[in-house]
Design brief:
Chain lengths: ~170, ~140
């Protein structure tokens, strides 16, 4: 039991932040992203020993749960629109821990938000999840070359945006 | 071999650290996982109890249907003294009881009236084999 708790803490420590960050690429608010990660993690924990690459599988679980959340939210918004209620996505901007250079952080975050979701996801998985392109390929069910290309496009796009903003 | 220069943008991105997973979220996940493990253990225990009950009922039904087996007297043997070295084992002689087949044949042979033959046949009929012989007609033989 203690071993399992230690193992759980290792997973939290190693991937917790990146998992929530990945969920935030789809889910607007931190609270919703945490709910998504919770559901995904509980499911992952039951089957983690039956999969080949557990790390890639965990990120795939979170992505799958986030997409499921998004689908149900769209249905809910449709119902709320019909009912005349407002259900807009929250746009909190607290993805990263505060840095000394807050202005720089805000610029990068804004530039990231303008990236297509697929490129943003690859960026999150490679930079903050520290997944290899082979693992990212397993998450998205694409080839490693495609994963690497998306990453390169994301960097090039970010670079253009930051240069355009005087960076 | 050439080494790639680290991309300044990548280095800049690496400086950004995602918000760590909150303690509250960690607690929620750990709670859900342990609750799930407890539920699985309960289901496993329940399944084992149900399986044991099914086995017990099956064994009881089989025993009830087949009835009691041959009754044997309890073995209350007394452990005797060990055989002294060098002494041979002597098997006591016991008059062998004739098998039922022989008894039936003997009683049939000794029967003097048809009533006696009938009595012998009635006694052993359930255990006899019946066969026909093209020359001698229907014959009965003890199938014991």
């Amino acid at each position: 039991m203690q071993d399992e708790r230690d193992e759980l803490n290792t997973w939290f420590h190693r991937h917790g932040g990146a998992l929530v960050l990945l969920a935030r690429q789809w889910v607007g608010s931190q609270a919703d992203a945490e709910d998504v990660v919770q559901e995904a993690f509980v499911g992952f924990w039951r089957s983690r020993n039956r999969v080949g690459d557990a790390v890639a599988y965990l990120y795939r679980c979170v992505r799958h749960a986030a997409l499921g959340w998004l689908r149900s939210r769209r249905r809910r918004l449709r119902r709320e629109r019909i009912a005349g209620r407002d259900g807009e996505l929250s746009t909190e901007r607290d993805l990263f821990s505060p840095l000394e250079n807050e202005e720089e952080m805000a610029r990068i975050q804004t530039a990231m938000e303008r990236l297509p979701t697929t490129q943003r996801e690859v960026l999150v998985l490679h930079i903050w999840g520290e997944l290899t392109f082979a693992q990212i390929a397993a998450v998205f069910k694409v080839s490693p070359n495609t994963a690497a290309s998306r990453y390169r496009y994301a960097l090039a796009s970010l670079r253009r945006q930051l240069a355009g903003n005087g960076g | 071999m050439m080494t790639e220069e680290p991309d300044p943008l990548e280095a800049q991105l690496h400086k950004l650290k995602p918000q760590p997973m909150s303690a509250e979220l960690r607690g929620r996940i750990a709670g859900r996982i342990s609750a799930s493990a407890r539920a699985r253990a309960r289901i496993l225990r329940g399944s084992l109890v149900a399986l044991a009950a099914v086995l017990l009922v099956s064994v009881t039904v089989v025993v009830a249907v087949r009835g009691p087996g041959p009754q044997t007297e309890g073995t209350k043997g007394v452990v005797g003294p060990a055989l002294p070295a060098g002494e041979s084992v002597r098997i006591p002689e016991r008059p062998a009881e004739p098998p039922l087949r022989l008894l039936a044949a003997r009683q049939l042979a000794e029967a003097e009236t048809i009533d006696q033959v009938d009595a012998v046949l009635d006694q052993y009929a359930p255990r006899w084999l019946v066969f026909t012989d093209k020359d001698r007609g229907v014959l009965f033989a003890p199938g014991l």
